[in-house]
Design a protein that fits this description.
91% of the residues lie in helices and 0% in strands. The chain is elongated and about 45 Å long. By secondary structure, it is mainly alpha-helical.
Amino acid sequence: MTAGKKVKNAAQKTKGKMKETTGRAVGNESLEAKGAREQIAGDAKQTVQKGKDTLKH
């Protein structure tokens, strides 16, 4: 996985975790759900990139 994509995916996961935590703290279910979705998207992107890297080698 290229370093840039790895950082971008990790940042998306972190951003999602922050949204989820903030949503939980203030009682905003919508923000909490959006944060969870962002984390899942970041995980999925990392998984795809790791798969691509495995196939290249």
